Amino acid sequence: RYFHFCKLPARVMGIRLLRFTSVVIIVLLLVAGALTALLPNIKDDKMPNLRREPKPPSQSALDSFTLIMQTYNRTDLLLKLLNHYQAIPHLHKVIVVWNNIGEKTPEEMWNSLGPHPVPVVFKVQTVNRMRNRLQNFPELETKAVLMMDDDTLVSAHDLAFAFSVWQQFPEHIVGFVPRKHISTPSGVYSYGSFELQNPGFGNGDQYSMVLIGAAFFHSGYLEDFQRQPEAVYTLIDETQNCDDIAMNFLVAKHTGKPSGVFVKPVDIRNLEKDTNSGYSGMWHRAEHLLQRSYCVNKLVNIYDGMPLKYSNIMISQFGFPNYANHKNKM
Amino acid sequence: RYFHFCKLPARVMGIRLLRFTSVVIIVLLLVAGALTALLPNIKDDKMPNLRREPKPPSQSALDSFTLIMQTYNRTDLLLKLLNHYQAIPHLHKVIVVWNNIGEKTPEEMWNSLGPHPVPVVFKVQTVNRMRNRLQNFPELETKAVLMMDDDTLVSAHDLAFAFSVWQQFPEHIVGFVPRKHISTPSGVYSYGSFELQNPGFGNGDQYSMVLIGAAFFHSGYLEDFQRQPEAVYTLIDETQNCDDIAMNFLVAKHTGKPSGVFVKPVDIRNLEKDTNSGYSGMWHRAEHLLQRSYCVNKLVNIYDGMPLKYSNIMISQFGFPNYANHKNKM
C-alpha cells in the first residue's frame, strides 16, 4: 500500500511522517554503529602520540619486498642489523630464520621494544641447516625477497637502488657480491672471485653467480627450490654450504641467461668482528672455498651440464652519491 | 640401357670403358674450371702478402654493426677518426654522410690508401641537413647502427663493451652521453645535463635521453624515423639541431620505457680543437642549449605528451680496465 499523500487527512499524515522519520533515524544510528565497530582499534601506546608520524601508505605486494635473514649464534649482530633493516624503504616484513636450536627467540624483547615499522616473524627451526632460509615461508606475501646474511650491513641507499634494479630484472638475482666459476683444461671447474683468472671472453673479468647472502630475487624461486633433485639438498646439508651456488644453478637453468645482475655497492660492511659471540662465520673454515669448487662440480653432475652463464655488466647509480659520478673529460 | 657387364665381350667392354673414363675426366675438368671461376679474385697489392693476416670470418648481420658518421667541414678529423673506427671489432661497414655540398668526397684518396678492413661508403648529400644521417640507407645491412659525431673518439674497448650491452638491450639507445629534461611548476620543460637539478625521484640524478652522437641503436628506428609527423622534420631543419632529441622521443614512445641505457665510457675524447678547419661544431652556438629546451617543448606538442622516461642505471664493464674495479671493503 503506497502513501497517497494527496488523499489522506492532515492529522494521519502527521503521525505517519513522524513514524517514518523515527525509522529513518534509527536505521541511520544502526549504520553508524556498525561503521564504528568496523573501524580499526587505535593501539594504546605507553608514550603520548603527540610527535608520531602519520602511518605510511600500505605497501602493495608488487612495490615492496620481504627481508629473510637466517641467524646462528650471533643474536647481538642480528638485533643490531634488525634495527637498521626494519627502516629500509619498501620493506614489507622481516622473516628471521632462527637456527639457534632449542634457544628462545628474542621475540619478547623485540615486542617490548615496539612499535616497529614492519612486522617481524621469528621462524623457529628444528635442525640447524643452511638451507632453512630457502623454505617457501607462508608468511611471504611479496614477489620480491631480500636475503641478507646475519653479519652483513648494506646501506639503505644501496638497497633502495638495488630493489629498483630488481624490478627491472625480476627474473635475476640482483645483488652485491659477484663470484665466478672457471673451466680448466681437465674439464674440472673451479670456484672463486676476481683473484682467479678471467674466463677469457674479451677484455676484463666476468661473473657467473651473484651470492644470495646480499641480494634480491623473486619469491617464486623459493617455490622452485622445493622441487629440486634430492641430491641438491644432500649436498647442501653435507657441506653446510653452497645453497647460494645451488640457487644460481636453479636460476640460470630457468632463464637460460646469466643468473645474476651485479650492483656495485657504495656501502657494504661485514660486521663479523663486532660480535660478542666469538663465532666468526662459515667462510672462515679451512675447507670453505674448496667445498664451493666441489659443489660446482657436483651440481654440474646433478643437473647434467653447466647452466651458469657469464656476464660483465656492472650497475651503479647514476649521479649518486656523487652527482657528477658519470662525468667524463669530454 | 644399362651396362650388363657380364654379358659383353672383352673388346667391346674395353672401348666402352675408355669412352666412359674420358667422359668422366672431361666432366671433372669442367667442374674444376667452374669452381676456379667462382673463387674470389686475389687483389693485386703493391706490397708483398708475406705478413698479411688471414681474412677474418665474415660478420653476420646479427653480430656486427654499421657505423654512420655524418661530416661537415672537418674532413681532417673525419679521416683521423676513420683510421681508428675502421678497425673496431664487429664493425661491418662504414657509411659516411657527406654534408659538404658540392665538394668532392675523399673517396679517391681513401681507395688509394687501401686495402681497408671494411667497406666505406660515401653518401653525397644535396642539402646540408642535420637529419641527413637519419635516412634509411640501403647500404645498411646490420640490425645495429653505431652513430658517431665526426669529432668524437671512443676507444675500441668502450665500443666493444657497449655493443655487447646493446645486444642485451636492442630496443634501447645504448650510448655514452646522457642528458635529461626537467619539469618546472609552469609545465614548461627544460633540457640539460647534471648541472640541472635532479628530477627528484629518490636519491641521485636521472637521465631521460642518450644522445645518438655516440651510441648504438636498432636500424629499425631509422625506418621509423621516416614515418614521423612532418612537424618533426621542420623542427630539426629549422634549428639544425635536436635530431637526437627527436630520436629519443621516438624510441621512448615506441617502448614505453626509458629510451636510453647509459654506458659509462672509460675513454671518450672530443677532437674539435684538433681540426685545421677552424670549424668548431654546432654546440658552440650561443643559442644551442636554449634551442634544445625549445625542441623538447615543441616535440611534446607534436607528440601530444611527454614520452621520455627517467632512468638512473649506469653500466660499467666488470673488471675492466682495472681487474678489481668492483672490489669493496668487505
Automatic annotation (TrEMBL), chains A, B:
Pfam families: Glyco_transf_64. Its EC number is 2.4.1.223. One of its GO terms (biological process) is N-acetylglucosamine metabolic process. The keyword Disulfide bond applies. Keywords: Disulfide bond, Glycoprotein, Glycosyltransferase, Manganese, Membrane, Metal-binding, Signal-anchor, Transferase, Transmembrane, Transmembrane helix. The keyword Oxidoreductase does not apply. Glycosyltransferase required for the biosynthesis of heparan-sulfate and responsible for the alternating addition of beta-1-4-linked glucuronic acid (GlcA) and alpha-1-4-linked N-acetylglucosamine (GlcNAc) units to nascent heparan sulfate chains. One of its GO terms (cellular component) is endoplasmic reticulum membrane. It catalyses: 3-O-(beta-D-GlcA-(1->3)-beta-D-Gal-(1->3)-beta-D-Gal-(1->4)-beta-D-Xyl)-L-seryl-[protein] + UDP-N-acetyl-alpha-D-glucosamine = 3-O-(alpha-D-GlcNAc-(1->4)-beta-D-GlcA-(1->3)-beta-D-Gal-(1->3)-beta-D-Gal-(1->4)-beta-D-Xyl)-L-seryl-[protein] + UDP + H(+). It is a single-pass type II membrane protein. PANTHER family: EXOSTOSIN-LIKE 2, SYNTHASE CPS1, PUTATIVE (AFU_ORTHOLOGUE AFUA_7G02500)-RELATED. The chain crosses the membrane at residues 20-42. It is an enzyme of class 2 (transferase). This is Exostosin-like 2. Residues 65-320 form the Glycosyl transferase domain. It is found in: Endoplasmic reticulum membrane. It comes from the Eukaryota. GO terms for molecular function: alpha-1,4-N-acetylgalactosaminyltransferase activity; glucuronyl-galactosyl-proteoglycan 4-alpha-N-acetylglucosaminyltransferase activity; metal ion binding. Its main location: endoplasmic reticulum. InterPro entries: Glycosyltrans_GT2/GT47, GT64_dom, Nucleotide-diphossugar_trans. Belongs to the glycosyltransferase 47 family. Its cofactor is Mn(2+).
